[in-house]
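Each record in this resource describes a single protein on a pair of labelled lines. With that in mind, the following record should read easily:

===
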Amino acid sequence: MLNSFEYKTLTGAKIEDIEKRTDDFYVTTISIKYINNFNNKETVVKITPTLIKENGKFSFNPISAIR
């Protein structure tokens, strides 16, 4: 059985919102747009990963996006 992600084509992604919680902790809203190759239906999914600032650099926790 093939992975369902093999049938989806990314068509766009956009940061919609960044909310500052503390100086080193931010929550973002990101929309991801893709086309399902089976039925050509376009779908938009929103995720909300947390951004963490350490030593002046930003990174995000990928597990936090699965809420």
